[in-house]
Amino acid sequence: MGEAAFGDRTLKEGMSGSDVEELQDYLMTKGLFPYPASTGYFGSITEQAVIDFQEKRNLKVDGIAGPQTFHAIQILRRGDIGIHVAKIQSQLKQVGNYAGSVDGIYGSGTESAVKSFQKEEGLKVDGVVGPQTRRELDRQAAPKTAAGKELTVESTAYTADCSGCSGITKMGINLKIYADDAKVIAVDPNVIPLGSIVKVEGYGIAIAADTGSTIKGNKIDVFIKNRDTAMQWGRKNVRITVIE
């Protein structure tokens, strides 16, 4: 028996599978999943993230992902961040409505591009990617990702304990609570879209979930829990590969 497709079954605490992993990806897109990786297991962290999303969208609040929650969470709008946004941007670029960077950030440029596409296709013009807009985009262009992209970047390291640091990444990951499990890098989204999974030489498999004022171009900042270890990382060139 194969894995359940996303939305085929109601998800709740204690369940696992690729559909749970996709749910976690969407929760991360909404900035509501504080753990540094999609695990595919529906535990207490996922349940609380679902509750937070349901409260935010005025849905029935029960921590269970049923039809209403599945429908609402797949709707992409301004403020969302991550690989799902990057895929939509790639489609909009292919159909000629988007000239910006495929950065995984649903900002004003992406919203304007969605409105332009909707107007051309005779859809409701609201700048939100709901089922009809997604269906039409999928009909015209296949989503693309940065998977397979390889480059050498200058790397530095950071911790969550600096003065004034919140410990919360651009995508909502809490590095202070989940530091032991975190493999996170800060990137320039114009080079590596936020939400990408990246293999970093000498560091491991990480999620591109943060940005930084000095991280521009071919530069990354790797998260390391211990300050002394982070200092030892120094500044060095590393090879990276975007996995997804």
- Strands ordered across the widest β-sheet: 1-5-2-4-3-6
CA-based shape: globular
End-to-end Cα distance, whole Å, is 26 Å
Low-confidence stretches: none
CA gyration radius, whole angstroms: 18 Å
Order of helices and strands: HHHHHHEEEEEHE
How many domains? The number is 3
Text of the CATH class of the largest domain: Mainly Beta
Count of β-strands:
6
Quaternary state, please? Answer: single chain
Overall mean pLDDT stands at 94
Number of helices: 7
The secondary structure category is alpha/beta
Instruction: Please name the fourth-level CATH homologous superfamily of the largest domain.
Output: RlpA-like domain
Reported for the largest beta sheet, the result is: 6 strands, mixed, barrel
CATH topology of the largest domain: Barwin-like endoglucanases
Helix content: 25-40%
